[in-house]
Structure formats: structure tokens, C-alpha cells
Amino acid sequence: MPDRTQLFADVLAGSSDRPFATSAWQHFVGEEYDPERFATATVDFVRSWDWDWVKINPRAVYYSEAWGSVFDPDDYSGVIPRLVSPAISGVADLARIRPLDATSAPALAEHIASSRLIREQLPDRPLLQTVFSPLSVLLQLAGLPLYPGDVVYGSSAAFTHDDLIRQDPDGVHAALQAIAQTLAGYVSELIKPVASGGAGLDGIFYAVTGTASSGHFDAESFATFSRPYDLIVLDAAKDANVVFHTCREDSHPEWFTDYPIDALHWDQFLPGNPSLDEDFGVTPVGGVSYDLFAVGGDRAEVANQLERTLTSRPRRPFLLAPSCTVPTPADPDSLRALRDAR
């Protein structure tokens, strides 16, 4: 069996004899509100497909649960539980967002525990926990959609992204600072060795989920409301591996070329995005558009995009992966094609 940890490190360093390392991830609806069941589902998925590296993919709302947003774990729309009550129901609620201790805040402590369980069962794989950016978390706390055109299941927010950001910019910055400080502490616990009480992970998968491509933030406003707080969280991961994800079309990977990251992930096949052979000075991550992995999806297009990806990076290391979380359930033949590409 190949040394997956060394392979991952070599690919990130651009020195691998094998040009890429492969992974995919999905949500485990029905298992993700219990740390032991979630860990088991994650480990089973990784072992079933023999992925080279692991993006731990917890429930998408746990960040906002940490500050008091409430979701119904028995009522999902797709892979998102119904929002019962947001932590921020109006601009005045920004003042309620304070720094948390990651080891005692239930939602964060739960994911430190599940990460440790996954580490115990997968000692031979690079493990990265998913961490949303503070700006993404802030929008989620307010029940606002992270992606253009999306609707938050259960949300009745009577204000917009602009209302939240523009009416009280000082309050926004204070809330973002609190979120960033909390997530930095959380990251430190994730990458701390198990022997020292941490989860023993290899790094994080850091996602500016939707905020770079939403249309609500141009380069200047993103630099104001995201970048300073991204860097606080990323500084906590400076001794670990960071795979950085910017999502969907017009996702502006060029905004992040000077971030302290090891790999940069975007969807090369969507409008407004560069191809995977664009040189941003870090290891690129890409492969096949995530939605093609749906059951009944276009397997011929999966094969086509896979071939285009492989031919775009001859002898140049990269991480092979879908452009985002694959559907639940996913088409096994499409996952097999991804895995067998190596």
C-alpha cells in the first residue's frame, strides 16, 4: 500500500513521482448529528473507495449552531436541515456574537471529538477538517444564503446581505473578529496531536463558501470583510496543511494567490473560472463538476471532464477531486471512474 501521507505531502510540494492524489466527499444525512455515527460513516466511505486523502465533511450548519442557531435534525431539504431560529434575526443581534472556547462550545467540541475518532481509525491518511470562513459563518448565522439564487430552508430573514453588512459595519467587524478568534482556537485543537489532547489532524479544508462568487462582495469589499479574518484563521493552521476552496462560477481563485495556503480548489468547468493549468503558485485541486456525480448523471461527461483534467496537468502534481461535495447518494460508477483514474 502506498504511503498516502507522504504522497499528499509530495503532491503539495510539487515533488511527487505520481502526479496526483485523489479524494471525494459527501454528506451523511441521518448520521451527522452523532459524533460516533458520523465518524463511522466517514471512515466507511473512505475505506470503500480507498481515497488518498480525506476531507472530513460534517453537517454544513454546525458553525452557526456554535453561536446558537437552531436547526431541525429530523427535517432536511437535500443535505441541509431546516433552520428553526437564527442566531442573528436582525442587525442589532450582531452584538451577541462573542468569542467562544472551542473545547466547550458543544457544536465545536463535538467535531473535535469526531475528528479524533476518525484519526484513530484512519492513521494512514491525510485528514483535513472543513472550516468555513468567518464571513461565510456570519451569513449563515443570519439565515442568509451563501450562494446566489439559493434559499435557506426555514429562513424568514427580513433583511438582505447588504442590510447586514452596511447598516452596522463596526458591529460586523466585531462579530467577524469574534468568529475568527473562535475558529482559530478550533483549528489549533484540530491540528494539536492526540497525545496533547487534540484531534491530531493534518490540516484544514478552508472554504470561502459562496462569498467570493456571490455578487454581494467585489474585490474591495471582500478584502475588507473577509481577508483580515481569513488570515486570522489561517495563521492558526500555519504548521499544518491548508487546502483552500472557492466555490461555483466566477469564484475568483486569483484573489487568494498570496494567502498562506498549500492548495487551491475551484471548479474549472464553470463560467468565469480559469482552467486547472493556470499557474497560481500553489498546488491546484480539481477534477469533475460535483453535480455530475448524481445518480443517473452523465457518466460520459464525467469521463470527458476527467480526461480533460488529466491531460491539462501532464507531469505536474495536483489534487484530483470533484469541484465540491458530491450528491448523497452518488453514482458509484462515476466515483469508481474518479478513483480508478490513478
UniProtKB/TrEMBL annotation:
Uroporphyrinogen decarboxylase (URO-D) domain ranges (all copies): 33-341
Domain of life: Bacteria
Pfam families in UniProt: URO-D (PF01208)
Keyword terms, alphabetized: Lyase
EC number of this enzyme: 4.1.1.37
GO MF term set: uroporphyrinogen decarboxylase activity
Xref: InterPro entries: UROD/MetE-like_sf, Uroporphyrinogen_deCOase
Protein name from the UniProt record: Uroporphyrinogen decarboxylase
Protein's organism: Brooklawnia cerclae
